[in-house]
Amino acid sequence: MIKVLIVDDEPFIRQGLKILINWEQYGYEIVGEASNGLEAIKELETKEIDLIIADIKMPEMNGLELIEYVRGNMLKEVKFIVLSGYYEFEYAKKAIKCNVTDYILKPIQKDELIKVLCTFKDEYIKREELYAAQKIKDKVVYDGYLNEVIHGKSNNFNLEYIKNYNNFSDELRYIIVEINYHNECESISEDEKRKEQQIFYSNMALWLGDNYYNSVININQYTESYDIGFIYDKRLAKEKRMNEKEYILDFKMSMRQIQKYDFFIYVGQKVNCIEDIAISYKSATIAKLVSDFSFDNNITYYDENYGKKEFSCDKGKQYMDCLIHKIEDNNKEEIINCIDEMCNSFKEYKINLDMIKINIDYLLCNLLNIAKELDSEANQEEAMQYIRFVSLEQIIRAGRANQLKSFSLEFAEYLSQLRQNSFQGVLNQIDKEISEHYMENLSLKYLSEKYYINSAYLGQIFKKQYNVSFKDYLNEYRIEKASELLKRSDEKIYKIAEKVGYNNTDYFINKFVQLKEKTPLQYRKQFCCK
């Protein structure tokens, strides 16, 4: 509803306007009335008003003076429609110069009023849509800069930008909100998870109201991150006359009533300024890691770490050595038990995220060395590129033991394949696949699934055999087939491209030039001339 204030010194005019039409039918709500400009200002100070319908000639403060005062002193963008008699036409012209929306001549006619209101409503809706779209754009940019600061990449520019939108106090905490999909019987698609993240984010923004800039979607390089960030500020609790824990509990209970899925809250350590929010974010990540085995009340505070013994490097090394041994043996049950034991111990120690990172790197380095010993000619960096970015670094960011388990089990299988697989038989099958299906959408992922072999390992042995990557080999094979068709037929270039597996003709031509140093047409002409 568009909120309207009627301002006229004659009570019967005000009353007549109120009953002249069904305001709600046209999308309006009369929220107040005033007899002059001064009374109107008092109404503006206490009420949300979108439109003022005001007479020009009034005592104490007339309509023109009211318009000038609002334009010069009020932050609210209020629109005006002025009422005028014929003998006040000069006043009306002055009002138009003050950028009023419209004017209506007295006596007020119903049809004329409806026409003016409908025109105003159309413009109001367009303006609100533009404003809403701009707000979304501004928030996206803000979230981008805020994420830089959260992840420790602050600079004068991004700090100044976010401070222009948010006046942070001297007591802040970063809170991670994780939607709990783990207890669902049916698997949930990535699209569904992303959709629920957006719904939660929108609901949180509504709950925060004018403080919605304290919510943020945590952006990082991992597409499987569905967390929502929340910068707690002591000012928020004060506004609700609550202490910190009451406020966070109130947030949890309010969101739980409207969310489809349950969720967990991880509260980082207190910092004194937005410049240090990255410290609080890291500690919230640790709280998430520690809480992996303590979901009692769904809220975990990093502060619970205080008073605990430090998780030493030697302690971490003991667990990593045990895990390396179990991975090397490909003992799935013992791998899981080892990780569970390690993560359970986190509840007894004060966890340092950098120490966990050191231990993960130690694990990675040793596993690479083991793989190198099993196959000295294997390209371990190529193999680990896939595994590292899909799993290992995510363990640090996501704080989940399940991802460490997935990685460990996958790498145990990889080592087993290095020991046991005779790659020549597999490569013969792959070679046959290429010769028979080169024109189809072949990929390492598809072939690895078909022949039950790790895709990273398949890429290694293929390059070892043919001295080129699978992708380059497939492109060369397709271009050779295209060359034969160019020599033996007069088919269009795009048809030949499609026949050998290229849906994009430009890409086909680029590849052809890259390998043959001629365009397909030039290649064909050289044989026609002969």
UniProtKB/TrEMBL annotation:
Q: Where is the HTH araC/xylS-type domain?
A: 428-526
Keywords for this entry? Cytoplasm, DNA-binding, Phosphoprotein, Transcription, Transcription regulation, Two-component regulatory system
All residue ranges annotated as the Response regulatory domain in the record: 3-121
GO BP term, example: phosphorelay signal transduction system
GO molecular function terms noted in the UniProt entry: DNA-binding transcription factor activity; sequence-specific DNA binding
Q: Which residues carry this modification: 4-aspartylphosphate?
A: D55
Xref: PANTHER family = HISTIDINE KINASE-RELATED, TRANSCRIPTIONAL REGULATORY PROTEIN HPTR
Annotated protein name in UniProt:
Stage 0 sporulation protein A homolog
- This chain's source organism reads Clostridium beijerinckii (Clostridium MP)
